[in-house]
Amino acid sequence: MVRDGLYYALGLCVVAAVAGWLAGPAYSVLPLVLAAFFLWFFRDPERVIPSEAGAVVSPADGKVTDVATVEVNGRPRTRISIFLSVFDVHVNRAPVAGVITNVEYRQGRFRNALSAASAVDNEQNIVTLEGDGHTVVFKQIAGVLARRIVFEKKLGDRVERGERVGLIKFGSRTDVLLDPAAGVQVAVGERVRGGASVLAHLPPAETAGVAATGARRQEEAR
């Protein structure tokens, strides 16, 4: 369990005790129910991390809401978006093994995380990972209810595939941006589990390099 759940639950238990003492046992019910909810919400189950080469695992539990090609800094990337409801585990995990080469926090709005605009407009933390010749970016994006993004790693840290890296409170979205040569393994509407579900397979670094060079030459030819 994430320790935040213990803090919330403990505070609500104190409220329940005070309310019960001042107004009667019936007034303790609601804070105790909320305490139980927070203990459940901040659960942190163990996961079996896939070991196959090139696997990109989901950074969060939730529902795949979009698989699309987008342009990032003038280059195409495959974006896989995952929506987390308040009923999902909110612990975030690293999609691949690698070194954190950039962490960028952006203030923003708290629009519905299901909307396409939330990927740009909402508060978010953008993490870039370099590993095995690939660059993988994943975003922690706040939603309507989410008011705090937690990222526990720092620039230069090495993380392993599926390693816990933070969480988002309370409903939110995560995006993973991949090389367009990646073989996507999920479809819109599919439910995934953080650290356990494979979103895509990255090609060998040599293959990806050839594909990227070809794409740049095509752009230059235009």
Verbal overview:
There is one protein chain. The chain has 222 residues and is α+β, with helices and mostly antiparallel strands. The protein folds into two domains: 3-41; 55-205, Distorted Sandwich (Glucose Permease (Domain IIA)), CATH 2.70.70. It contains four helices and 14 strands. The chain has helices at residues 3-23, 29-41, 118-121, 205-221; strands spanning 55-57, 62-72, 75-84, 91-93, 98-106, 124-131, 134-142, 148-151, 158-159, 164-169, 172-178, 183-184, 191-192, 198-201. Strand 2 (62-72) and strand 3 form a beta hairpin. Helix 1 packs antiparallel against helix 2 (29-41). The relative contact order is 0.20.
Keywords:
25% helix, Glucose Permease (Domain IIA), 2 domains, 8-stranded antiparallel sheet, 14 strands, 36% strand
